[in-house]
């Protein structure tokens, strides 16, 4: 029975995560336990376990006697998280370079070619997907579960912002150039250069977010 309850609460947690990331549960919104039990077809016990997981991840906040609310990410949060992400993903690039073999480099070559094609065609959604696959590949190559865990946790928090930085004019090609610089360092076996290039890539994303805040999509020319 315990394993069934665990399975239910994991499923409920994942469903709630996706609703939060998709904006179905907006920042600051109240989490209605009774409605969610009915929607997810679960009892209060697995739902409350799921809520505890999301509170621990930082996606929800719990207020005594009031319940749970979707977390809100502030500009200060983003300012504090991005330098940490830059350090962590930079380290992942360093370790990935140290571990990469010919087969790994060949696989990354294909991913970067896909990235070039999407950038050239202006396919932003597909570019995001290829971009994510490349970052995941570096983290997998790093083979450091602590790095992977912390990066994964911080990524979840940043997804609350739901910013589309590639809509900033010029950012798509800039992002591609940054990725190619990281990959060139990895191919040459220069772990230090790969680390520095990945750090700069993450910090450039933060600058793109500032530009997005100054010029929201409605004000950015298509």
UniProtKB/TrEMBL annotation:
The lineage of its organism: Bacteria, Pseudomonadati, Pseudomonadota, Betaproteobacteria, Burkholderiales. Gene3D superfamilies: GntR ligand-binding domain-like, Winged helix-like DNA-binding domain superfamily/Winged helix DNA-binding domain. It comes from the Bacteria. PROSITE patterns: HTH_GNTR. This is GntR family transcriptional regulator. Keywords: DNA-binding, Transcription, Transcription regulation. Coiled coil: none annotated. Residues 6-73 form the HTH gntR-type domain.
